[in-house]
Design a protein that fits this description.
3 helices, Metal Binding Protein, Guanine Nucleotide Exchange Factor, Chain A, about 200 residues, alpha+beta, 6-stranded antiparallel beta sheet, 3-stranded antiparallel beta sheet, single chain
Length: about 200
């Protein structure tokens, strides 16, 4: 009986991880080059990003600060490299225009224009707002080799990168919803009545 329970637990973990198939490309996201911004309507129209950390800066918070700042679920994922269950997060099927930011520090990470439906149950993007906003390292947990992606400013765990995404990058940033916050795009003003000018 005990062997059966252990086997079932192991298979459950494997199934969850298989949803983010391990076909990892080693740092292919860097191909966009430093400073490369993603074209998209939300990148230049979102407010609420004025206080975002500057590119290249690092958070000075220590583990005790994170325990105080984050909920227990956020802490588990962002600071202990946990994974939320598929199809349970706030943003897996979110379609609003705007910028997804780090739930730990507010750093802008992904533009909604790069989000796509992957069928995995986690928000998926084909590239970050800027390559410098995310960092990566090799993750060899669960007898797999994957590329873990984290917020470059605070080091918060976001998810993993896979090489089965859509053009133009061919990448899939498979991200935990709980690692993200969202800043909606500002609505565009309507053109004056009778005007041919588009806002």
């Amino acid at each position: 009986m005990k062997t059966t329970l252990v086997l079932l637990a192991f298979l459950s973990v494997v199934l969850v991880l298989a949803a983010c198939r391990p076909g990892v490309a080693a740092d292919k996201h860097a191909e966009a080059g430093p400073g490369t911004a993603v074209p998209g309507p939300a990148a230049s129209t979102s407010s609420g990003l004025e206080d975002a950390p500057k590119v290249g800066t690092k958070s000075s918070l220590v583990d005790a600060d994170w325990k105080e700042k984050l909920s227990s679920d956020e802490y588990y994922v962002l600071r202990k490299q946990g994974t939320e269950r598929a199809f349970t997060g706030e943003f897996w099927d979110h379609k609003e225009a705007g910028i997804y930011t780090c739930a730990g520090c507010g750093s802008p990470l992904f533009d909604s224009a790069t989000k796509f439906k992957s069928g995995t149950g986690w928000p998926s993007f084909h590239q970050p707002v800027r390559a410098e906003r995310v960092g990566t390292h090799s993750d060899r947990t669960f007898m797999m080799v994957r590329t873990e992606v984290h917020c470059d400013h605070c080091g918060g765990h976001l998810g993993h990168i896979f090489d089965d995404g859509p053009p133009p990058t061919g990448l899939r940033y498979c991200i935990n919803s709980i690692s993200l916050d969202f800043v909606p795009a500002e609505p565009q003003p309507a053109a004056p009545e009778g005007s041919d000018v588009k806002p």
